[in-house]
Design goal:
The chain has 335 residues and is an all-alpha fold. 61% of the residues lie in helices and 0% in strands. The chain has 16 helices and no strands.
Length: 335
């Protein structure tokens, strides 16, 4: 047996009966020759990690727009934190770690610059709306690899598409990423909010801290352990009802206190105005977009509005600001 076949045999013998086995994948849209070394999900993980969209996550906002400190989360660090939490849970439940990691690493590839502020701006501007989970699938199917896409397996695509709270992933591995995403962003947004002095340690409602603990490390540990205990040897992924209720309360608190913070909202308005001007500019002058984006328009694969959305959504924070400055700000005279 080659290394891939040995790995597939290990999965069949040792993983939970509820795990998604790489040898049993529903496959890819375009059939590929199996790798001698890597399983199908390992191949997907590597394709995502080596993609341009993955590298751009390093310079995309998580929550706080253009933070000056070195320790604020970016979309990339958030993605890695989700992958770490999700793999820990998958390993303990004897589910497929490689599938879990691939979904986690790809779940935010379609996120806009400036976090959900950018997503909300494009959602208003683009006919048919804009959702980052749908855009993430579009990135890996139509935009990456010079428009050829990454040709990922059904299970990875499904997990990426359905990682939002209101969705239902087809695999337990996808459900792990869905919950790990919430755990990661809520706990770490608290850290960043305290770093920004938007909230103080004693500000969080006591019934939340009494249940989850006073630090993000303790909270994550509790939630991960509880999720494993509740889901062990079951065909489901769930938190105990009391912890799920507290997590819901924490999410509401963050929206009211952090995401709706007056300073944050002021910057949010600026970002939305900037992206609106960029969108309108490229709608009127699409020839200024890169050749690969325009090629999709010229071949009928995209209409102008979706192509402009693809271009703006793929920008990093600093590139969006640079393009705005070049287009709308007067250049200094040189003597």
């Amino acid at each position: 047996m080659n290394p891939r076949q040995k790995a597939e045999y290990h999965e069949q013998k040792n993983l939970s009966p509820y795990a998604a086995k790489s040898a049993d994948t529903k496959g890819r849209k375009h059939q590929m020759q199996p790798c001698d070394i890597r399983t199908e999900y390992q191949k997907d993980r590597d394709r995502i990690t080596h993609s341009k969209a993955f590298r751009r996550l390093m310079h995309k906002t998580q929550v706080f727009i253009s933070p000056e400190g070195d320790h604020y989360r970016t979309r990339l660090t958030h993605t890695l934190e989700v992958a770490q939490i999700a793999r820990t849970i998958a390993r303990a439940l004897r589910l497929n770690e490689d599938l879990t990691e691939a979904i986690a690493l790809g779940h935010d590839l379609g996120h806009t610059p400036f976090g959900h502020t950018g997503e909300d701006a494009l959602d208003v501007l683009v006919p048919g709306g804009f959702r980052h989970n749908i855009q993430s699938v579009r990135v890996v199917e139509k935009l990456e690899n010079s428009g050829l896409g990454l040709n990922l397996t059904f299970e990875v695509l499904d997990g990426i598409l359905n990682h939002r709270t209101e969705c239902t992933p087809a695999t337990l591995e996808g459900k792990i990423v869905q919950t790990s995403d919430k755990i990661a962003y809520m706990m770490h947004d608290i850290d960043d909010a305290m770093r920004a002095k938007i909230i103080q340690p004693g500000d969080i409602p006591s019934h939340i801290t009494d249940t989850l603990g006073q630090t993000s490390i303790k909270s994550i540990d509790l939630l991960v352990r509880s999720m494993i205990e509740t889901s062990f040897e079951k065909n489901e992924i769930a938190l105990p009802q009391d912890l799920a209720a507290v997590l819901k309360d924490l999410r509401s608190y963050l929206f009211e206190t952090v995401y709706a913070n007056q300073l944050h909202q002021k910057e949010r308005g600026k970002i939305q105005g900037m992206l609106k001007l960029l969108y309108e500019h490229y709608i009127s002058k699409p020839e200024e977009m890169p050749e690969d984006i325009m090629a999709r328009v010229n071949t009928g694969k995209s209409d102008i509005s979706r192509a402009v959305a693809d271009y703006i959504a793929g920008m990093t924070d600093r590139f969006a600001m640079k393009r705005f400055e070049e287009i709308f700000m007067p250049a200094a005279w040189e003597h």
